[in-house]
Every structure is written in structure tokens, then in C-alpha cells.
Write a structure and sequence with these properties.
By secondary structure, the chain is of the alpha/beta class. It is 40% helix and 16% strand. The chain contains nine helices and nine strands. Strand 7, helix 7 and strand 8 form a beta-alpha-beta unit.
Length: 293
């Protein structure tokens, strides 16, 4: 979808890939299916097995959906830092949740590592399979699909791609495809300004769900991106609200961060260029959060 009001007065074009059309309303359906089917191909998962993952919500919802279809039990380690809608969705699909308390509902530098440790302990205790999303390269295959679709839908006319990152799976999976098409396609990553771990080496607290995890994600490859932009929680939240009211795109804060970054790139990249970013998920996941409540 081409942005109209958000990109008004810009010489470049900004397009948003609407990933909330996936079954659970999130692009994470792509990675969940890829991780589960990768494990099946290698014989790591068999009928009736249990899967364990740590997640802020959307990955958990997507894994719960896939595991429900395929008949696996799912144990999720998550936190009250993430929206109640996400937690309820995971439970609705049959996942068993372990909640790690946060500090005031915020994503602090130690929250995700604590969730990872808890998930590892549960998996060892149960002898379960860990999808271990931050280290699982199978997800790249799932996100490659976004890159192929973007090129197809824009007839190959892509000049830049903008993506906020948590695991960096989407950013790297799409970048693999785009950079293979042309090294001239620029890739811009987005991280929270309050915790610019990759761009500046400093940690902090923020509330953009799904990104800014407090450490450099193992899947991140420097040769696949050109620049890192920083966006504040406030900027991301305000853009999410504006996208709904002014563009009819109902999505969450990481999408807001993506669009803030894409508009910045559009201002400097040149006339007639095509910048693409992603609407990560649906705003229905955030109705009771400070973004829309």
C-alpha cells in the first residue's frame, strides 16, 4: 500500500507491506511455520512433542497457531511487559504460559535474557524442543518470502527497505533477497532511541514491543544493511495512531517505528525512489495498551 498523507510533500514514494493479513494478524506466522517445519525436516520434532519458546507475544501467537494445527504442545515464556491481547491469543490457541514479571511494564535490558534462561530451563526439564528464535536461522526462509513478494508487487522497482528489528529475522531475511537482486538497494534498520545497542552500544528501557531486546541479535549481518536509524517510543506510538486515523492502517508500535524510519529515508533518498517498509501486525493486539487505550 502506498502511503498518501504520511508521505505528502515528499519526492519519494513510501510503500507499506501489510503483513497483518497473515492468519494470526502478524508477519511472525511466516517465521513460526519456517522454524517448526525446519525442525520437522531434521527429525527434531515428532508427533506429540512439546515446543518451548520465549516471546513478547506475536511469535508466541504464531507458534501456538502452527502447533495447534500440527498437534504439538507449546510452552511459552513471556512477560507482563507485553499486551494482554497477545497473552490471551497465545492461550486461546492452547499455549501454556509462564509469565516473567517486568519492571513497570517496560522492556528493560535484562528482561529478554531472563525469559531466555527460563525457557531453557523448562526445555531441559521436559526434554522439549526449543525453537530458540534469536538463534534459529530457519526463520530467514520464512521472511525471504516478504522480499520476493515486495519485488514482485513493485515490478522490481525497490530502492530501499526499512525494518525495525528484534531477532533481526525479518530485516535479514528480506535483505538477503533484495541484496541478491541488486547491491544498490539500501537497507535501513530501526532500533529504539532509548536503547541503541547496535548503533551506539548503550542499553536502556523502552516500550516498543517486539524490538530493542537489549543485546545484538545473533542473526544480524553487517553486510546486509547500510545504516541504523533510531526512533523514540513516543514517535513510534504517535505514528501508529496517525496511521490508523490518516491512512487506515491499524497496526502496532513497531510498525509506527518502521514508518517513522521510512519517512526519514524518503526525505533524503531522492525523487522518484521507492522505499518499502512493513506493517508488522494488527492494532487489535494493542487495544488495551497505552497506544490506543
Amino acid at each position: 500500500m502506498k502511503l498518501n498523507r504520511m508521505a505528502k510533500g515528499l519526492d519519494a514514494n513510501v510503500f507499506v507491506k501489510l503483513e497483518f493479513y497473515n492468519p494470526t494478524g502478524s508477519m511472525k506466522d511466516r517465521m513460526a511455520l519456517a522454524m517448526i517445519e525446519g525442525a520437522e525436516r531434521r527429525g527434531q520434532l515428532r508427533p506429540g512433542d512439546t515446543v518451548v519458546e520465549y516471546t513478547g507475544g506475536s511469535t508466541g501467537s504464531s507458534l501456538a497457531f502452527v502447533c495447534a494445527v500440527k498437534g504439538y504442545r507449546l510452552k511459552i515464556v513471556t512477560s507482563d511487559a507485553f499486551s494482554q491481547e497477545k497473552l490471551n491469543t497465545m492461550k486461546a490457541f492452547g499455549a501454556d504460559l509462564t509469565i516473567v514479571p517486568s519492571e513497570g511494564g517496560r522492556v528493560t535490558p535484562d528482561l529478554i535474557p531472563n525469559m531466555m534462561k527460563r525457557a531453557e530451563g523448562i526445555a531441559l526439564q521436559l526434554g522439549a524442543f526449543r525453537t530458540n528464535q534469536f538463534y534459529n536461522e530457519d526463520q530467514l526462509l520464512g521472511y525471504n518470502g516478504i522480499g520476493r513478494e515486495v519485488l514482485d508487487q513493485l515490478d522490481g522497482n525497490v530502492d530501499a527497505f526499512v525494518a525495525a528489528f528484534g531477532t533481526a529475522g525479518c530485516a535479514m531475511g528480506v535483505a538477503q533477497v533484495l541484496k541478491a537482486r541488486s547491491k544498490l538497494i539500501q537497507v535501513f534498520l530501526v532500533e529504539p532511541a532509548e536503547t541503541p545497542v547496535v548503533s551506539e552500544g548503550t542499553k536502556g528501557t523502552h516500550h516498543i514491543e517486539g524490538i530493542g531486546v537489549g543485546f545484538v541479535p545473533p542473526l544480524l549481518r553487517t553486510e546486509l544493511y547500510d545504516e541504523i536509524l533510531t526512533v523514540t517510543t513516543g514517535e513510534a506510538q504517535e505514528m501508529a495512531r496517525r496511521l490508523a486515523k490518516e491512512e487506515g492502517i491499524f497496526s502496532g508500535t513497531s510498525t509506527g517505528a518502521n514508518v517513522v524510519g521510512a519517512v526519514r529515508v524518503a526525505k533524503k533518498i531522492g525523487a522518484g525512489k521507492n522505499i518499502v517498509t512493513v506493517a508488522v501486525d494488527t492494532g487489535l493486539k494493542y487495544l488495551t495498551t497505552e497506544v490506543f487505550d
